[in-house]
């Protein structure tokens, strides 16, 4: 059976540019829709977090304040409830064996900007997965996790085509310049060839085994792109 390691941030606080703290977590649609799409195709999915801590869903991702319609929020909430056991007891990221998985999948929400962006365990998993020619997938702010794989030789994904949550979407989404850093600009500065679609468009970029989605609206398409690659 095909197995995917879904790496979810366990951070529940985002330190903004002015030093203040803001509640955060994973974005409901990105975990729920991605997981449902993959599982529906028969993929076995393990969820891992730094330290094996229970991840927190960002309350905004289940509210109209976060741009999520009530019926969609209820659907995501219901699906996450089916993952309660996995979310309550995720794998310890540092203990995950990358050779046991056919791909790594990193959903977003702003939380990865806190605990995944420099996580050494994630860096090791990404390096092993990419060097073995297996897919690495990141969605929205989950691309911040890709930045963990940066060392003396530069960024593992430098020179590759990719997308992620854009500066325009950040401005329109309410955080604006208060975010700790721009994921779009960090990817560009690190050597990524960043390609962006229209704000909030369903946009996926595939560069060999690197698959990236721009925003929550790209969740299903990103998961489907991984299924196509695995097939």
TrEMBL record:
A single MF term (Gene Ontology): glyoxalase III activity
CDD domains named among the record's database cross-references: GATase1_Hsp31_like (cd03141)
SUPFAM superfamilies: Class I glutamine amidotransferase-like
Alphabetical keyword list: Glutamine amidotransferase, Lyase, Stress response
Gene Ontology annotations for the cellular component aspect, listed alphabetically: cytoplasm
UniProt xrefs under Pfam families: DJ-1_PfpI (PF01965)
InterPro entries tied to this protein: Class_I_gatase-like (IPR029062), DJ-1/PfpI (IPR002818), Prot/Nucl_acid_deglycase (IPR050325)
Residue span, DJ-1/PfpI domain: 88-228
Origin superkingdom: Bacteria
GO biological process, one term: methylglyoxal catabolic process to D-lactate via S-lactoyl-glutathione
Family, as annotated: Belongs to the peptidase C56 family. HSP31-like subfamily.
Name of the protein this chain belongs to: Type 1 glutamine amidotransferase domain-containing protein
Taxonomic placement: Bacteria, Bacillati, Actinomycetota, Actinomycetes, Propionibacteriales
């Amino acid at each position: 059976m095909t197995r995917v390691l879904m790496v979810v941030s366990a951070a529940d606080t985002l330190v903004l540019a002015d030093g203040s703290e803001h509640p955060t977590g994973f974005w409901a649609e990105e975990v729920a829709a991605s997981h449902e799409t993959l599982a529906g195709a028969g993929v076995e999915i393990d969820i891992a977090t730094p330290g094996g801590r229970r991840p927190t869903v960002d309350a905004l991702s289940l509210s109209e304040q976060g741009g999520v319609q009530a019926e969609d929020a209820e659907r995501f909430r219901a699906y996450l409830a089916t993952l309660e056991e996995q979310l309550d007891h995720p794998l310890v990221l540092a203990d995950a064996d990358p050779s046991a998985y056919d791909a790594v999948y990193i959903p977003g929400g702003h939380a990865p900007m806190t605990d995944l962006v420099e996580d050494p365990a994630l860096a090791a998993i990404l390096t092993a997965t990419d060097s073995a020619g297996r897919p690495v997938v990141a969605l929205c702010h989950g691309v911040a996790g890709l930045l963990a794989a940066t060392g003396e030789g530069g960024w593992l994904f430098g020179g590759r085509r990719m997308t992620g949550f854009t500066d325009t979407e950040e401005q329109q989404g309410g955080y604006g310049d208060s975010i700790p850093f721009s994921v779009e600009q960090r990817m560009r500065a690190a050597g990524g060839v960043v390609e962006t679609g229209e704000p909030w468009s369903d946009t996926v970029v595939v560069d060999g085994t690197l698959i990236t989605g721009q925003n929550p609206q790209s969740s299903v398409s990103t998961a489907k792109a991984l299924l196509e690659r695995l097939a």
